[in-house]
Amino acid sequence: MSNKSGQTKLDAEVIAEAALALLDEVGLDGLTMRKVAAALNVQAPALYWHIANKRELLDAMARAVFVSAVDGVEAPRRDEDWRDWLIALASRLRRAMLGYRDGAKVVAGTYVSDEAMFRTVELTLRTLEDAGFSKARAARVFPILLHYTVGFVIEEQARSDGEYGEHNPYLPERLASLVDAQRYPLTAQLVTDVFSGDTDAEFTEGLHVILAGLDAAGWNETPVD
């Protein structure tokens, strides 16, 4: 939104979107309030009326990423398994973070105070209660899945970081040449699966393992409230 002079009207949301747009160019380490101000064609002090510091900027950026991730999320359909619903929810967040360079680092450790967050937590808790989880255990599941998702994408993005360039050690052809097959035959055989496999499949398989673990531990069977 612009004012009569044609200049963008500043608020936390506009500033956060400008900062996210800069990530592909400068990365999180190179992101400064001054660069964000320049992108908005204003002086840096103008930002501080809306964003007090970089910590608040990261919170606003994380809010934008999370809100986009959960846009349109609804409760599970009547015939939808609770596990499938949770996997789809985590996958939405992963895709949203992958949309930006260092997107997962932006989200990690931030405080997202927004109706979209509270609504998503509420839907998750209700879904888990309907699946037989106690309130106490349902409350544990959301952060478990959130932390797994953010951590996975941090690692995923770090391995594909453009700073490596052509010397990226995680390229399959480089991985295969780095292991002494005589000393470490299994590692040499499986190194590309261990370190450079199908990340989409790896992510989903990890979620299945976590959810199977909850089942095996009886979290949705034994009430503890």
UniProtKB/TrEMBL annotation:
Q: Which residues bind DNA?
A: 32-51
Keyword terms, alphabetized: DNA-binding, Repressor, Transcription, Transcription regulation
Which Pfam families does this entry report, sorted A to Z? TetR_C_1, TetR_N
Keyword Signal, does the record have it?
no
Q: Which residues cross the membrane?
A: none
Keyword presence, DNA-binding: yes
Domain named HTH tetR-type: which ranges?
9-69
Q: Which InterPro entries match?
A: Homeodomain-like_sf (IPR009057), HTH-type_TetR-like_transc_reg (IPR050109), HTH_TetR (IPR001647), Repressor_TetR_C (IPR004111), Tet_transcr_reg_TetR (IPR003012), Tet_transcr_reg_TetR-rel_C_sf (IPR036271)
Top-level taxon in the UniProt lineage = Bacteria
> What name goes with this protein?
TetR/AcrR family transcriptional regulator C-terminal domain-containing protein
